[in-house]
Amino acid sequence: MENRDAKLIEDILRLKRQRKAIILAHNYQLGEVQDIADFVGDSLELSQNAAKTNADVIVFCGVHFMAETASILCPDKIVLLPDMHAGCPMADMITAERLRERKREAHKAAVVCYVNSPAEVKAESDICCTSANAIKVIESLDGEEVLFVPDQYLGHYISTKTNKRIILWPGFCPTHMRIRPEMIMEVKQDHPQAKVVVHPECRPEVIAVADEVLGTGGMCKYARREEIEELIVGTEIGIIHRLRKENPGKKFLPVSEQVVCPRMKLITLESILWSLQEMKPEVKVPEEIRIKAKSAINKMLALV
Ligand code: 13P
Ligand code: SF4
Fold first, then answer.
1. Please, are residues 204 and 159 in contact by the beta-carbon 8 Å criterion?
2. Is 216 in the pocket of ligand 1 (CB under 6 A)?
3. How far is the CA of 142 from the centre of ligand 2 (A)?
4. Is the pTM of this model over 0.90?
5. Mean pLDDT score of the chain, rounded to an integer?
6. How far is the CA of 17 from the centre of ligand 2 (A)?
7. Residue 298 class from Cβ within 10 Å (0-12 exposed, 13-18 middle, 19+ buried)?
């Protein structure tokens, strides 16, 4: 570790104690950010952790919708997102107004929103889900028709696993869109024994060549299995740091070094330190929206 990083980390940890803060980091964060976090996890685990922490301040190292979810669950805490530009492009592919229009046309359908959505969209939804529990959430519904927003690919994947009729929204993740089946086959050529795991945000033709389709938390669990020695990983590159750290001796092969979520990478040790010094940027969801969005999130959390 460079001296500069060591000093930054020392300052962050000192301020963290002074502010009674907790640092939560998503599995896609930079390795040095993951290493200083109190908890590293997937979207579901991060919201569960936010809900149960007794810290005064949550420093959220992830993207905007994740910090919003923490603010929805913990209105009395200060939720800091070290860089306000760290938004998820998929979450920006839907607005509450456009969803209200679509709901009028599909009025019989239950609305399930992927957690990668703005708080206002959650407030318009019946229930929320993450990649870790999407099928369970859909199966828990009474009706046969579901309007699934905003990820068309996760929605399509779910439709292959349930008998319910899924109406899709045309959103997608630009990072997972970069993954092509040929890229996986190329890595596989040199590593024929390797298993292939991909995120359900991937295109159907990518899912078709995978051994397992899992969210990031599921991937971390899968990698710990005894029989896994070599794993081709079809998701954002940041998870490779955690997989290697937790499984020394096993081989983790990214499908490409270019599968990067640039917004996730805006969070750095520097921005975390500034955020703790200035106590901003703060993410706070207006109360009227928060109450409605909380109901959709809590229905999901109650199912886990
Ligand atoms: P996970 O919930 O699987 O961590 O996914 C979050 C995400 O943004 C995937 O692109
Ligand atoms: Fe959003 Fe994709 Fe980045 Fe996940 S990887 S935060 S879905 S843009």
1. no
2. yes
3. 30
4. yes
5. 97
6. 30
7. middle
